[in-house]
Amino acid sequence: MKDAKTKRPPLRVIPARKGRSPHWIVEHDPQSPPDICFDANVWIGMSEKDADLLERLETQRGFRYRYSITNYCELLSHFEDPPSDSCQDPFIKYRRCFRKIVRLCHAEVLPSPEMEFLKMTKLEKYLDPVWIPNPRQTALGVEVAANAKNLCRANW
User: Fold this and answer.
1) CA atoms within 13 Å, Cβ hemisphere of 112
2) What is the DSSP string of 57-90?
3) pLDDT band of 156, cuts 50, 70, 90
4) Residue 128 backbone dihedrals phi, psi, to 5 degrees
5) What per-residue confidence (pLDDT) applies to 153?
6) Section 117-138 average pLDDT
7) Which residues, in sequence order, are bridge partners of residue 15?
8) CA dist 110 → 8, 25, 55, 70, 95 (Å)
9) Residues 43, 116, 37, CA angle at the centre, nearest 5°?
10) Model confidence at 98, in pLDDT bands (50, 70, 90)?
11) Which helix (H) or strand (E) holds 99?
């Protein structure tokens, strides 16, 4: 059965709990692979090995990875975090997230869930346009963050 709004077949994600397996089963129409958007915490915790696997899934199965304006804002907000026992260099840690986004994601930026909610409820007219991030500027900002040498200098 197709979702009436998107005309796409449904995507089913099923935990494979046999023997407490950490794996998941993803069922989808191979002719219409899913777009996948990750929470910022997934980008933070993603290893290079994880990113390699996601690239293989994109190549083999056609998955498309996307990021949202919320991912950008949340990750960027940590650039100036002070060092801690668990993270000696927050700038490097969060720049690595932007590099994974550039490596894996399509350049089309998703709006924030809050903006979609305001649009759906027809309340966006009450929000000044200055508060609405521009997706093209966000895509450029992701590139700048991924290539920054430090907090003071971006590598153009």
Assistant:
1) 16
2) HHHHH--EEE-BHHHHHHHHTTTTPPP-SS-S-H
3) very low
4) -65, 135
5) 57
6) 82
7) 24
8) 18, 25, 20, 9, 20
9) 25
10) very high
11) helix 90-104
What does the DSSP 8-state code read for residue 15? E
Rounded to 5 degrees, φ, ψ at 77 are -65, -15
Quote the CA–CA distance of 42 and 91 in Å, as a whole number. Answer: 17
Q: Which two tokens stand for residue 21?
A: 């397996």
Farthest-apart Cα atoms in the chain, separation: 53
Q: Which of 140, 122, 124 has its CA nearest to residue 132?
A: 124
- ∠ CA 132-79-106, nearest 5°, is 55
pTM of the model: 0.76
How are beta strands 12-15 and 24-27 bridged, if at all? Answer: antiparallel
Residue type (1 letter), 7: K
User: Which pair of structure tokens corresponds to residue 31?
Assistant: 């002719």
Q: N- to C-terminal Cα distance for the chain?
A: 48
Burial class (CB in 10 A: 0-12, 13-18, 19+), 24: exposed
CA dihedral of residues 71, 76, 82, 83 (deg, nearest 10): 70
Residues in the chain, overall count: 156
Task: Assess whether pLDDT exceeds 90 at residue 45.
Answer: yes
Of the chain, the percentage scoring pLDDT greater than 90 comes to: 42
DSSP string, 16-53: --GGG---EEEE--TTSPPEEE--HHHHHH--HHHHHH
